[in-house]
Amino acid sequence: MQIYFAPMEGITGFVCRNAYEACFPGSIRKYFAPFITASSRKALSNKEIRDLSPENNTGIHLVPQLLANDVDAFVQTAERICAYGYDEINLNLGCPSKTVVTKKKGAGLLAYPKLLEEFLDGIYTYGEKNGICISIKTRIGMYEPEEWDRLLALYEKFPVSELIVHPRLQTEYYEGKPHTECFERALSKSCCPVIYNGDLFDKNALTQFAADFPQQETVMIGRGFLMHPGFSDRQMLWRFHDAVYAGYCEQMQGDTNVLFKMKELLSYLQVGIRENCVREDEAGGLSGETDQVDRQIAKQLKEIRKCKTKREYERAIRMLRQF
Ligand SMILES: Cc1cc2nc3c(=O)[nH]c(=O)nc-3n(C[C@H](O)[C@H](O)[C@H](O)COP(=O)(O)O)c2cc1C
Q1: How far is ligand 1, taken at its centre, from the CA of residue 7, in Å?
Q2: Domains of the chain, CATH where assigned
Q3: What is the pLDDT of residues 129-181, one digit of tens each?
């Protein structure tokens, strides 16, 4: 199975990607960068340039992503991005956030089929002319799973290089079970490669998915790799944590900024940290000790959330590691 690393705004920037690659070299076929909002006027920000620049992404296959609903803005921004040597742009048709959706962008654009078609027509004309592949990361609709067939039929009209499907509606955000039957319909109807994305949180989930879809070549994983880095063990979890921390300390000024990033990462890592400490009793059930350790971990995580300096953080993390 080939694995893509999902884009997560605010989390999977180049520091996180490089740390992941250092810990699990070669395990990710493509990393997707968090979205850049397309603009016909504005140049890329320094932060965006740093995230995309090849020297910050050595040995990594990175795909930049755009949030857009306007052909001119898409083209102008794609041009600026491709100047750094990229030849694939991913279009974000999945972002469920209210501020994005009300602007008819991300998953919000899915509710406007005519606007979406005109937009896709314009950007694929540009892509074909300029040798730029355009892949799509999409939800299955805004309100109803019934929207999906119409969307699939629309995507079929364009040379979509890859279709990454997060089979949820905009209104579902990240809740409830993914509509895997919609993903199956994409597999049977779509001519382009279809990639599954959603809720593959650990090795078991991936194994189950591979058993359910034995033909599937590629999946995209996001939160799962932040909860259980590399779907590996406790030692690798901490190695990843340390690599991210070292990266932020090198790249960011001020303890507050570094700690803000680390606390966000820990909100995912804590899942793996807690699972790793599960102790079994003699009968193979969960021991009372597990409950106690879990409570201690929860308490220590609370302490970490209160840390204000790197020194406090480092000390609190050292204690957390002992469980
Ligand atoms: C905090 C956060 C930020 C995200 N940022 C982006 C983004 O910039 N672009 C995008 O296409 N998807 C974004 N997503 C969605 C993820 O890429 C992915 O589709 C989603 O988390 C489901 O996959 P998972 O269950 O493997 O995590 C974000 C999700 C989260 C939770």
Answers
A1: 6
A2: 2-231 (3.20.20.70), 255-321 (no CATH)
A3: 999 999 999 999 999 999 999 999 999 999 999 999 999 999 999 999 999 99
